[in-house]
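Feature request disguised as a bug: please show the residue count (421) next to KCNJ8 protein in the output. Example input:
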Amino acid sequence: MLARKSIIPEEYVLARIAAENLRKPRIRDRPRKARFIAKNGACNLAHKNIREQGRFLQDIFTTLVDLKWRHTLVIFTMSFLCSWLLFAMMWWLVAFAHGDMDPSTESTTNSTKWTPCVTCVRSFTSAFLFSIEVQVTIGFGGRMMTEECPLAITVLILQNIVGLIINAVMLGCIFMKTAQAHRRAETLIFSRQAVIAVRNGKLCFMFRVGDLRKSMIISASVRIQVVRKTTTPEGEVIPIHQVDIPVDNPIESNNIFLVAPLIICHVIDKRSPLYDISAADLVLQDLELIVILEGVVETTGITTQARTSYIAEEILWGHRFVPIVTEEEGVYAVDYSKFGNTVKVAAPRCSARELDEKPSILIQTLQKSELSHQNSLRKRNSMRRNNSIRRSNSMRRTNPSLIVPKVQFITPEGSQSASET
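Example output, currently without the count:
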């Protein structure tokens, strides 16, 4: 280390370290805020420190439906096994109390008129098989009830009632899990990105929604909420402040006819939380727009709900969705490969408030876009013209048959003149 310090001056080392730091600047990204609603509609919320866990057992059916499939199947299997084992123990006790388990009764059965409570029940295994036969109503015929024991008849009635209750609860739970409303929401899709563009002279927030199934959603409605962290004038911090924003719909209600993909539009006016946000401010905003689509499934009649959200990074300013519905041979065709495609359009970069105060900004923006469009067309036409001239010249050079020969004209005085055409 001493030799290196003597060979390389300290000033050179410091200058080199400074140059390396300049080449690799350190960029500190803004910490990304957690989403309240994921793109697939799942709520990004964790419940902690719940002390009253018994409330979930009071609503046991909903708790069973909300469980995962592996837990539901385990509970389904264990409920039947436990009931069979419980009543097998009861049948074994009935047979043991009546003396059916005594080996001496087998010899006296043929000589006297001794009748057991349940025939052919000599062990716990046979009692377990008889319990399954009673609850599942199989009835193989080897084991059967007699009128000797009233207690056995009571156990038979009790087991039938308990078996019916278990069948009703577990089968209903499995049916509800297979026909849950959020399963239908898997075929309701939203565009990955939202756009802000000018529509009818107003800045509008737009996104696209569609249904992949032919079975329609009846009475479908769309709601939009803005979730952001706010602070009240009193100093109270509200981490999840929800604000409803209206949806532009020509019908008085928010119901939509979702037969084909639609572009849902929100006009950014004085009532909108986006009224004071410009294109430059949008990147710095810590907000999330939640979209909720509700409706009734036509085939099952169950109410379903599909959700998604858009953060500031997923909102494109000055873009518009491309049309995807075309008429082909008398049928309206939807091209879902272009569902989320957008194109750039002319849009002012100012906020909606500034646009309302100075309407000339919109006119100037449209004029500039028209001039740029005309200039691009002129450049394109000139490039095409130049390319055609170059192509014709190259063809003349390469093909000698296209070269026009020289023609000589003789005047009356005998002089010759050459002209080239």
